[in-house]
Design goal:
mainly alpha; 0% strand
Length: 58
Amino acid sequence: MNGRKDFADRNEMSGSSRLGIEPFPSLEIIAADPEFKPEVISREEFDVVWQHAKGTPR
């Protein structure tokens, strides 16, 4: 990983991130693939990362 954090929402996007047209699979399905190690984070943790990716850190 290069440490870059891109994002996409209904109004804007950065880097190569785009909104998908299909919903994400469950964490259990993602975790079944050894390439991924998903973990649950709090809403607050998500908001910090999201704002940083958008260039508006809290």
